[in-house]
Design a protein that fits this description.
- The chain has nine helices and no strands.
- By secondary structure, it is mainly alpha-helical.
- The protein has one domain.
- The relative contact order is 0.13.
């Protein structure tokens, strides 16, 4: 496991951790989280996380991303609409940490405002309902 310097490094390490989980459980991702705590540019972490949601239906990889979001809570200045558009299509709704991270990072008023635009953004209404459910929004 090497120190990540690019979003691709983050994505690859999370995917490798999910592949090796059958033999090692979550040991590898827990070790990787400790390394991620040393990454100064949190945008690299966020982009790597988005790439997992964007490119895989692998539940375990997404679950590991949820652990990263929960443990590290990486901050970003990425546009919320872009983040939702890129993540929501392949997002496994059981990974509730994504919803919570969006609320923490962007704030509830901004998140609610963008969720109201789901038709314009062509976001899955069922997944929007799930985000609202995880955040106890009506």
């Amino acid at each position: 496991m090497k120190f990540p310097q690019t979003p691709e490094d983050i994505e690859n390490e999370i995917l490798i951790s999910s592949e090796k989980a059958q033999n090692f459980g979550d040991l590898r991702i827990r070790q990787f989280i400790k390394i991620l705590l040393l990454v100064k540019d949190q945008e690299i972490i966020v982009e790597g996380i988005i790439r997992i949601f964007e490119n895989t239906e692998n539940f375990l990889a997404q679950e590991f991303v949820g652990k990263v979001l929960e443990e590290i809570n990486p901050q970003t200045h990425k546009d919320l609409k872009e983040v939702l558009t890129r993540t929501i299509k392949e997002w496994n709704v059981s990974v509730e940490q994504l919803s919570i991270w969006l609320q923490i990072n962007y704030g509830l008023p901004k998140l609610q405002e963008v969720l109201e635009e789901h038709d314009t953004l062509k976001l899955d209404p069922n997944k929007i309902r799930t985000i609202r459910y995880w955040l106890n929004l009506r």
